[in-house]
Write a structure and sequence with these properties.
Layout (H helix, E strand, L loop, with lengths): L5 H6 L42 H7 L3 H9 L4 E3 L3 H25 L4 H10 L2 H31 L11 H14 L14 H25 L1 H4 L7 H30 L5 H4 L1 E3 H7 L1 H9 L8 H31 L24
Antiparallel strand pairs: 1-2
């Protein structure tokens, strides 16, 4: 090693962790990311021989009983979401739930559950005030998320692994083919699966639609100064339809994926076991094992980037807060979501004096 340049000494440990192979025809751990890829199907252990590449099976195939025993003994955990991200998720979840519980009764006022919620909260005006407060909290949470993502990308130089790629489309097609029996292997995925990316960007799209239509409904007079009047009823219809779609997506898709198919505790304790990582995010686990995941710049570089990012973030924060303030206080004539009920007086009623 003395004949190698000094910079090579720092690079070699990232690629290998054994100088010589202890057994012939075996691969050292963490080499080429292969030995840490899952070889046990998460729901069909008997199909593990179809789950991994042929070249990897030749050196690492073991009886199913031994493989299952080894997987059950895995207790090591990995941090997936820090506390700040979990708090951000819970704030968004609570605000979204409140918006759903206070928005659906306005969309379906004649439904029995709507009457229960309306009576429990004291009427439509209280319901609308709670709905507006939850919308403000979600807007603030969205602004904070933008700032956090900016810091992660600019200062820490984290990869934008949440962005959809062509590989996600291939993974989706391969997953479908595998589930119906037309593919022999299940796709190996990284930090975010294609399902998680679809959920994230569906939420982003829904937030944009709900925000724009919500502004028109909250400030109809201001909106019609630069939009045709037909946009007001159109916004009301789009707002209600998108709300129903979002609630159904959370209940049917998200709740199934993280609570029924496999209970995911990452948003509670921030961690996933190694077995869960093998099942859900094997490529990320491979990067962690190889020592190439979550590499941070040196402190001096971070401080230099912070000096650039913080002033930009401050201006961006002021702009977003000003936008939220204008959203709230543009006018006081929010569109009525439930038409008023008029009742005629009895014919034998005494005339008013």
């Amino acid at each position: 090693m003395s004949a190698l340049p000094s910079w090579r000494n720092r690079q070699l440990p990232r690629r290998m962790d054994e100088s010589l192979r202890t057994q012939p025809r075996t691969l050292p751990n963490r080499l080429l990311r292969q030995p840490v890829l899952q070889i046990l199907h998460p729901h069909r252990p008997w199909r593990h021989d179809l789950f991994c590449p042929y070249r990897y099976l030749q050196a690492h195939r073991q009886p199913r009983e031994r493989t299952e025993t080894r997987m059950n003994k895995i207790t090591q955990t990995y941090l997936r979401f820090p506390l700040a991200r979990r708090i951000e998720h819970w704030i968004m979840m609570l605000s979204f739930t409140t918006l759903g519980l206070t928005g659906l009764p306005q969309r379906f006022p004649d439904a029995s559950f709507s009457r229960i919620i309306l009576n429990g909260l004291g009427g439509i005006e209280t319901l609308r005030e709670i709905h507006h407060a939850a919308a403000i909290i979600m807007m603030l949470g969205t602004a904070w998320h933008i700032l956090v993502m900016g810091y992660s990308v600019f200062v820490l130089r984290d990869q934008m692994s949440i962005l959809p790629t062509l590989q996600d489309a291939k993974d989706g097609i391969q997953t479908l083919l595998y589930n119906i029996g037309f593919a022999k292997t299940y796709p190996q995925m990284g930090r975010y699966t294609f399902e998680e990316k679809m959920e994230y960007w569906a939420f982003v799209w829904g937030a944009i639609i709900m925000g724009l239509t919500g502004f028109i409904m909250w400030n109809p007079i201001t909106a019609t100064t630069f939009l045709p009047g037909e946009f007001v009823p159109a916004a009301k219809a789009a707002h209600g339809g998108e709300a129903v779609l979002a609630v159904l997506a959370i209940i049917i898709w998200h709740m199934y994926g993280v609570h029924i198919k496999r209970f995911n505790k990452a948003m509670f304790n921030g961690k996933m076991t190694e077995e869960e990582m093998l099942h859900e995010h094997p490529l990320e686990l491979a990067d962690i094992k190889a020592g190439i995941a979550d590499r941070r710049p040196d402190p001096a570089t971070i401080r230099k980037r912070q000096m650039i990012y913080y002033p930009i973030a401050a201006l961006l924060t002021l702009g977003m807060l000003a936008g939220i303030y204008g959203f709230i206080n543009a006018e006081e004539t929010a569109l009525e979501t439930i038409p008023p009920i008029t009742q005629s007086a009895p014919e034998d009623a005494a005339p008013a004096p």
